[in-house]
Each structure stands twice: as structure tokens, then as C-alpha cells.
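assembly run, all chains below
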Amino acid sequence: MPQYTPPFNDIQFVLHDLLQVERGLKSIPAHADLDAITLDAILEEAGKFASEVVFPLNQVGDREGCTFKDGVVTTPTGFKEAYRRYVETGWPSLSCDPEYGGQGLPELVNTAVMEMFNSANQAWTMYPGLSHGAYEALIAHGTPEQKQVYLPRLVAGEWTGTMCLTEAHCGTDLGLVKTRAVADPGGGYRLTGTKIFISAGEHDMAENIVHLVLARLPDAPPGTKGISMFVVPKFIPDAAGRVGERNAVQCGSIEHKMGIHGNATCVINLDGAQGWMVGEPNRGLNAMFVMMNGARIGVGMQSLGLAEAAYQNARAYARERLQMRSLSGPKAPDKPADPIIVHPDVRRMLLTQKAYIEAARAFTYWIGLNIDIEQRHPDEQARREAADLVSLLTPVLKGFITDNGYESTTLAMQVFGGHGYITENGMEQFVRDARINMIYEGTNTVQALDLLARKVLADQGRKLIKLGGLIQGFIQAQSERPAMREFVDPLAELLGEVHKLTVEIGRKAMQDPEEVGAAATPFLRVIGHVVFAWFWARMARVAMDRIEAGEADPVYRSKLATARFYYARLLPEAQFRIREIRTGAGSLMALEEREF
Amino acid sequence: MPQYTPPFNDIQFVLHDLLQVERGLKSIPAHADLDAITLDAILEEAGKFASEVVFPLNQVGDREGCTFKDGVVTTPTGFKEAYRRYVETGWPSLSCDPEYGGQGLPELVNTAVMEMFNSANQAWTMYPGLSHGAYEALIAHGTPEQKQVYLPRLVAGEWTGTMCLTEAHCGTDLGLVKTRAVADPGGGYRLTGTKIFISAGEHDMAENIVHLVLARLPDAPPGTKGISMFVVPKFIPDAAGRVGERNAVQCGSIEHKMGIHGNATCVINLDGAQGWMVGEPNRGLNAMFVMMNGARIGVGMQSLGLAEAAYQNARAYARERLQMRSLSGPKAPDKPADPIIVHPDVRRMLLTQKAYIEAARAFTYWIGLNIDIEQRHPDEQARREAADLVSLLTPVLKGFITDNGYESTTLAMQVFGGHGYITENGMEQFVRDARINMIYEGTNTVQALDLLARKVLADQGRKLIKLGGLIQGFIQAQSERPAMREFVDPLAELLGEVHKLTVEIGRKAMQDPEEVGAAATPFLRVIGHVVFAWFWARMARVAMDRIEAGEADPVYRSKLATARFYYARLLPEAQFRIREIRTGAGSLMALEEREF
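ok done. output:
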């Protein structure tokens, strides 16, 4: 049976030692009162709930899955009850607007909470996670009446939300959406069509389900510019938010899939279902992007969560499992063999996970803080700069962390040897669950194209230069610290090379647009490493300072050693990817279709 | 529903164009009569059986799994019937010794046949696959009486075999085996203990199951030098090979696992079971190595097979699925969107699979041919050289191809987007099945240590230099062909660097033995790339010659383009790994256990 303990030590290192979030939050009047003690207390409670209530349902959910009968979805044993307690304890409202019953806490808090819930049980956490997305889309684009009806229920967790985008013939290419919306003489619209892959699309955990649906108006222009967004509730609420009549939106079936068995992936049939437009006609994709960006960050957090849980178990196993002697002589001579954590290749596997996880935590929490600045900072310039960073780095967060998360869970399973392949031990579930994160909310190819084409090239590199400026500032600030050169020198070298590389890609893309698609995936990995190298250097600096100040906590020695491991063994991938990018599109485009 | 078509085109390219196996087999009197037409006809029949009889059971096997009740294992619907037909058609006896009823065909034929059966259904193919291992161990180490009793039945496929090595507390570290064997006054031995993870350990497909079991004699020295091998049949045969009384060897339970559901992974309880020693006392691990080396090559073939099947489906999907327009303008303007095979990143994913698969096929078939030379060539020098190459490259074949196979099946699934995560579509099964191959028959860490410590360093690099000599010879032979420089130059550069690197590792290892463990895994990837780069250059040369000779078959253009892709985008990993190795053991060993 796998175990999970919330990693408070490292969370506190990131929040307080590294990001000094209290200082950041102080500059945002809405959050200026949140002190470190309250923050830590909230996280401790969340961690307790995640590890004690939600985690014990992780294997049950995988084993039982959801069941579907006559349009009704039954979630696995315990899911409903845990959700009821989650709602009662007020977790859904954490970072929501007090105007609708929220607690008005920073998004940063939600980020850390989501990490722990995803470690505990990704499939379960998707139910409340999607509600938060619906909340964000409605608060940004809903009419005042829509907000009054839906937001208090979503904030309270009484209702949950979904995103209904995909259809059988289109996922990435939403311009092909066929679901139709026709104005209803009685008000609102009537929607007809079939959506697939709708996570949490039907279940027994909440009183109502709020679908946000992409569809076309009869006169809509073709393609992505003819898509509108509609709110389509399972039960139609009155103005006071009391549920009424059942809407013509039905779950047609649920999918059998590789993982996240506890979450119902639904076919949703709209059969003249009543809906109300959210935002402007034909601008639905824009409105949905609010939700999608939040969801992409959410998916990154899922992989961070899974990787952390898998790592904890791999580490524990590596300390206990006795097998072979260390090549440099017995380390546990009193036992029949040494614990496998003494072997360099087992350490390589563990440290790869650790280095990816801890950098991802620093990176995502920093993004969480920047979302708070973007949303609530009084200074417009500060808001804009934070928005630029969040926009640039959202695809990196999603793509890089989910790819690393799959590798990490795969390695964690490998540490278990044959025992990792056995379902009971729980390791292979982490891999199966982690696999979806590279696909949904935009495949990692889509993330890579979003980064390179939209966020970098279409922007003339403006946002990337801004990020480079931050990193450059950090590098310069280390000039008085010769001990930091082992990190700062390679970081500076990589940064310089990335700027050159980006200009090269831009130039080649003007000759041949296929160069963008050919460079995108390795480019995302390069930028991911730039960000992780920056965070590892920053963490190394904090650790050096603390060690020098005489602090004995092993976390600082561990940080410094992990930073060195990252620079030695993982960062060099960036050079390999740069080399790959420079070979251009030629080798990809040379084959005719029949030659594959 | 996934599809599978035996890749005869590429198999013929490898056998005839590239390896010119007829010429190779001519030099072995036992196989000199086998002409190309007969060889192709056998493979065509095997491919037909694999794709028409065995492949349709692949998803059924995954869905149903094996069931266990009261010591009896029932295999999935159709498994037993397919096995009966397999036996009737004579496939088990293909490359077995005519003295025991075999057809005496080259191991090479078996290699190609096994690729196709593994593409069709890895879980099913493991039942006959393990029998072949038992056959090899008994023919090498059995007494004349054991051979007379067991071999004809194994060759006919009437009985199947297993390897009983692992116990709950030991897999990699077989020195810890606890199962005990005590001489039986009535003859033979009585074995007591519990084995786990015994593939095909119990089933309903054959009349008898022949377990080869590692156990300790009462006076055995501790560790690996105190292990003996025993044959323990499920039913005790008489001297004529007629099954008699049930032996005290029982299946205690079967495992629930990530994949290969159709194969029963058994706990095997030996409760004073009758057994007979195979080979010498305390030399069992040696005897078992015959079987293990064959099994390691077999596992590589499993991953090649799975990767091929997954690739075929990803390619078909990429040609059909319409999504987005090509960045360089519509390619299917009459359709609502372009087929995704036009997009560079989809091509990157497909070509990665193709490049790994085709190089693996060339490499493994060449190893198959070398096994035939090792076993049957009249010239001792030729036999010894072939044996050295097979010994050096067995861990590379197992480790490199199974790692690449996992990546390939993961990419094939990714090409399907969300549809890849859905069980019905069959793609996620390929990933789950492929995952075990990195673990069993020695984890890939064990393979890497076997390669670097035993096959390279303990041998003073002698075998590696022999391989280098072959590659050097090829490079020199290309000097009259300037068009080959794009392949030959980087290959020569890499080869030179690998020789330097190996000397460096050897020198560092004398100071610190942990350097071996720290270098092993990336070193295996480097050597894998050396081999694949060599084969891609050889295949490019063949393709160039054929194109120049005016042959219009697109396979040659495809080969040349894939070789260029491999050199541009995959081979540079070798440099990254070399850099990783040079950072040494320091960053791995710096952390204390509590600092993880």
C-alpha cells in the first residue's frame, strides 16, 4: 500500500525561504493581512485532509472506477462522502471572491493545496478542480445574473463544473466544432450535439453540474471565429439558484481508460438542451481560454502532485529493500545485503525525480504568486508584467512538468523493480494517471506550439526577453558570490544561447513556416530547463546562505546537492535539444506520406 | 480496434538487402540449404498465424486476464485454442534440434518469427517463449536422460517451461535465494520454498509444465556460489515422457498487474516437490544464464514487436485523422482539415518510432545470425568472435530496445491524442505491456552494469574493441563514397569518443568503484547509439546504391530519409549522455540517505 505525507518542509522552504511570499503578498492590499502562520496553518489543514481523507480513496477509485447505468454515474466507494466533507470544511471557496461566498485567499494558497490534493488522488481532485475552472470563466465573462445564480453554488462546492469542448472529430482543432445553438423564443438558447471526453461530466457527488459548452450559432462564421460559449446546467436553476427541472443534457456513456478511473470521462449528449450565452457571440473560444489557462496550470499541478507521491514511495522502498552490496564495500554489514539506496543508479533515479519535483514546486508556486499579482496588484505595470510571465510560462508549466512527471513516475516505479509492476503496490497507477496529463487540456505538442509560435515569435520575443531580464538580474546579483559561479556561469551561457537560438528560429520560420512546428517541442524543453536552472540556482543560493549562517537543517545540504545533481545530469539535455532544433525541419519533412 | 500487418517489406530488406543472410547461412553447413524463398515462405506463414490467430486475442487477453481458483489458472478466451493450433502447426519446433523432433532451422528464423508473435500478443507469446528458454537450458546442461524425457515434449510444445528464480526478498540479488533442495533417498531432490513472479507458471494450455528452479543444497556455500538448478515438473513423467503423478508444486495465487494480463504471473509454492538437478551442484546460476541470455534477447524482441504494432496504428491514425491546417498551407483543401501526418511534430513522433524500430530490427536479426554462427559454424574462430559479439551486445539489445520501446509506444499513443488514452483503441495496452520489459529478466540497471562492468571493463575492453573494429572496417570501406560522409563522419567521431570515454571510466573506476554504477545507464545508451548509428549508416548505404541503380521502390527513399532523421534528431543524445557520464559519481553520492 503506498503512503503519502504532505511535504511541508519543502513547501515551507519554497514559500518562505525562496519566494518570501509574505513580502510579495504584502504589496497586494487584498492579501496584505495574510501572515506566514495563518498560511502554514491552512496548508497543514489541507494536507491533513488530503492525506487522511482523499488519499485512502486513491487505490479504491482506481480499482472500482466509475460505473454507468441508465444515464447515471456512480463514483467509487467513498468519493461522495469525501466530497461532502470537503464541501462542509469549506475547501472549495478558498481563493474565491468573497462577494460570492469565497474566502478571498491568494491563488498561491490554492496552488499549494492543489498540489497536495493531486498527490492524494488526481481522479477525485478533478471534480472540484473543474468547478474552479467554471468559476473562473463565469466570473470573467458571465452576466451579473449568471454570476448571481451560479457563482455562490460553485464557490460553496454544492455544484460542480465541466468544460465541454471536444467532439469525436475534433479536440485540438476546435474550429471544427459542430454542436449547434439556436435562440430559444422563450429566452436563452437550445443546444444540440455530442461532446466527448468530458471529465466529471456526470456523477453523484453534487446537486447540480454546470457545463460550459462550446457551440455554433446558426449564422456563425466557419472556424474558430464562429464559436460561442454557453452555460448549460444539468438542472435548470431559478434566479435564486434553486435547482429545478432536468435539462436535456445527458451522459451517454463513460470511457474505459488507462488511468484516472475514479473520474467519469463522459460522452455528453445535448438534445435541445437549454443554455445561456456566456460572453459575446462568436467569441467563445476567447472566453474559454480563461478557463483553459487555469486548467493547464492545474494539469501541471496534477503531475507535480503525482510525482511527489510516487517519489515518496520510491524513496521509502529504496531505504528498505535490501539487494546486492555497494560496489565500494558493504554499507549495512549486519544485514544480508545493502539497502538499494546505496547504489548509484538507484540514486540517479531518485535524484532525477527529486530535482524535477522541487524545481516544479518552486516554479509553480512562483507562478501562483504572479497570478495573484496579475489579478490584484494595485499597480498596473506590475499587473501587466506578471500577466506576461504567466502567459509565457503557462505552456511551459503544463508541457515540461507533465513530461517530467511521466518520467518521474516511470522511474519511481522502476525503483520497485518487479514489485512496481504489481497493482497492489500502487506505483503503476501513478504512471497510468500521469499519462493523461501529457494529453488533455491541449496535448504537449499544442503547448509547445503555443509557446513558440504565439508566446515567443508572434510577440517578437518581448515576453521571453522580460523573463531573460529577470534571470540576468539574478545572475548579476551573484557576482559578489564566487561560490555561485558553478551555477551562474552555465545559466548565463544557456540564456545567451537561447536568445541566439530564438532569433535563428524566427529567421528560418520566415523562409519556411514548418520550422516552427519542427522546433516547438525541443524548444519547450529548452525553456523548461532555463526556468528550472534559474530556480535551482536560486535555491542553491538560499541554501548556501543558510549553511554559511550555521543552520543545521539537512534540507539546506540536500538542496545544494540536488542543485548540483540537476546541473550535472539533467540540464545538459538543453544542449542536446538546441542541437536538435538547429537541424531544422528538413529531416522531418523529407518523407512523403506513403514513405512512413 | 488496433490492426497489425506483418512488416514483410522491412523484414526482407533486413534479411536480404542489408544482412544478405543467405550468404551468411551458406557458411554454416547445418543451414546451407536454406534458400531465400523457403525462408520468406516460413516467415509469411508465421506472420499469417501471428496476425490472424494470435493478434485477435490481444485485447481479449488484456480485458479478461487470467483467472485463478483453487490452484487452477484459466487463460483468457481463445488462448488455449490458439496454442493448440500453434502446436499442431509445428511452430514450437522451428529452431530446435532435429534429434529431439526439431526442424533445425536457424535461430535467425526464430528471431523474425518471435518479432511477429510479440507484435501480435506479448502475453500469449510468453507461454511458448519461456518453453524455448527451458529447452535451451536443458539441451546445454541436462543429463542424457533428462534430455530424452523433456526435450521432445518441449520441442513439440506439448509441455511448456518456466524459469523459477525470484523470491519475495530477492530478484536482482539471487545470492539471497532461500528455497532449499534436499537429496531424496528415492532419487533426485525434494524442494521447499516459494517463488514469485513466475510467468506462465500455471495455466491450462499444456499437458505439463517444466519448472527450472534455483535452490540451495543443505551444504551449499552462501551467496551466488551456492545455488543449484533443478528441473521440477508439474506432473512427474516416466522415462518415456508420459505424465504421471502430480508433483507438490502449486500455484498459490496470480498477480494483478499493469499489463501482460493474459500471461499468468504466479506465486509458486514448492512443498517438498520432486526435482532433479540440472548441471553441477552450486553451479546453477551459470546454467541458468544460458536461459537468461536467451530470455534477455527475447525481451528485446518483445519491445520491438510492441513498438512495431503501436507504430503501425499511429501511422494509420495520423493519415486519417483530420485536425488543423499545415503551417505551410492546406494539404487537403477538399477536406475540413489536413491529416495530422502533415504536421512536423507528429512526424517527429512517428519518425522516432520508425527510426528506433527499423534499427532494432536490423540489430536483432544480425544478432540472431551471430547466434547461429556461434552455435553451428565449423570454424572455431568464427564461433568465438560471434559469441563475443552476442555476449557484449545482449545487455544492449535488452536495455536499449526496451527503453526505446517504451518511448515508442508512449509516442504512438500520443499521436492518438485523447483517443490514445481510451482502452478500446488499444494504444495504451501497448504502453502497459511494454513497461514490464524494462524490468524483468534483469532490470535495465542490471543490463547496464552487466555491459559496463562485466562485458567491457572486466574484459579490458577487448570485446568492445572487436565491435569497434567491425564498425571501423565499415567506415573505411565507405571512403570511395563521398555521399556517405554525412553518416560516416559523425559515426567515426562518436566511435573515437567512446574509446576515450571507456578508458576514462576504467581509470576513474580504479579510484572509486561507484564510478561504474554512476556511468552504467548512460553508457548503455551511448553504446546503443553506436550500434544504431552503424546500422543506420549501413542501411543508408544499401538504399543509396539501390536508388542509384534506378530502383523505384519507395522503401529505399524512406530508408535514406529515416537514416538522416536518426542522425539529425536521435543520435545527438549520445553526446548528452557522454557529457552526463563525465560529470562522474560525485553528484550522485553526495547526499546522505536522510537527505533524499
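The two ends of chain A are 44 Å apart (CA to CA).

Chain A touches chain B through 97 residues (CB under 8 Å).

not gonna interpret more than that til we talk
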